[in-house]
Amino acid sequence: MQKRSWKQMLVLLLAVCLFSTVSPELVSSAASTQKVQISARKMTLIKGQKKTLKLKGNRKKVKWSSTKKAVAAVSAKGVVTARKAGTTVIKAKVGTKTYSCKVIVEAPKLNKTSITLKEGSSCQLKMLGTRQKVKWSSSAKSVVTVSATGKVKAKQVKKDRSARITASVGGKKYSCKVLVKDVKAATPETEAPKPSQPETEAPKPSQPETEAPKPSQPEPEAPKPQATGFARLKDYILTFGKENTAGNYFINMKNLYKGTNYTYGIVYNRVEDQLEFLFLTESSKDKSSMTMYVMENPVSAPTNYLFLMKNLSGGFEVKANLNPATYDGESKIAFQVEKSVGGAPYQAINDLANAAVQTGFAGWSKLLDYAGITFKDLGFVAYTG
Known about the structure:
Layout: H1 2-20, H2 24-32, E1 37-38, E2 42-46, E3 50-52, E4 55-56, E5 63-66, E6 72-74, E7 79-82, E8 86-94, E9 97-106, E10 109-110, E11 114-118, E12 122-124, E13 127-128, E14 135-138, E15 144-146, E16 151-154, E17 161-169, E18 172-181, H3 183-186, H4 229-240, E19 242-243, E20 249-257, E21 260-269, E22 274-282, E23 287-294, E24 305-311, E25 316-322, E26 336-340, H5 346-370
Parallel strand pairs: 2-9, 11-18
Antiparallel strand pairs: 1-4, 3-7, 5-8, 6-7, 8-9, 10-13, 12-16, 14-17, 15-16, 17-18, 19-20, 20-21, 21-22, 22-23, 23-24, 24-25, 25-26
């Protein structure tokens, strides 16, 4: 027994000696070689949200910055605050090294915030301005239901009922009030049957009473203001358009003529709240693009609409301001040459740009026809194309 206890003590003493030989500098060196990394390389926030970034494995002072403070700002402690829709990069600098996180800020909204349905009818709700997963729910499933894709269906009700559809995305909720109308209540009742025996006619007074004055005719109701052409086109695009990678909705059409592809499109830019008219051409020898930016309120906004055109094969970029009140579809526009490669004369570039404008307007007019809108509805009162 005594011999065994001495062996146990010898093993314990050896273990203590080995542990004491580990250098504190070695432990410190191992800790210092730990990889430094940012807590997230990419994240998506909803406007108004906050999230904290951290630099893992670092004990030194960190300098935080944002490439676009208007989109998202970051505090000295790494707290990121989403301000408006867009993309920015949050950087954490330690000494000579920089660590980055891409931040996408979204500003979602429902395409409708209030709708009225008859029992049995349906309507499609869409969450605009986000690429995140949307969770739909109904406050009263006995009144109205909603599918996983946002399709709302009114149930049968005994009287007019209302409910609220909620879309949850990124930790925030957005709602639409739904009023379901009872069709049966709106149907007038049949006239009560007349009694089989007519009642005795009341005796007429000896002196005829003066005729009661007729009620004055109600004044005609003032006409409701019509939605602007911009608002009508915007609503059409949001309802029937497709969503692009930027989260904006658009309508378009394509034509092929003599080996050249012509693409006409109208995009509603949700961030800038403006319409972008696009005209693209592409062939084996030539490629060009043109954009016209149209705003809703030309009173508070500039009355001239900006035109930008790029010709990749010819190597030039031009821009011009177009006055919608005076452009008739045939008058020449004086384009300003921003960039030119190859030495093409100004007049040739200007003529090509004007020809593209006329072709673009012809295609855009057809797109507007689908929405029941003309260029005059958008302020082009002189346009005759």
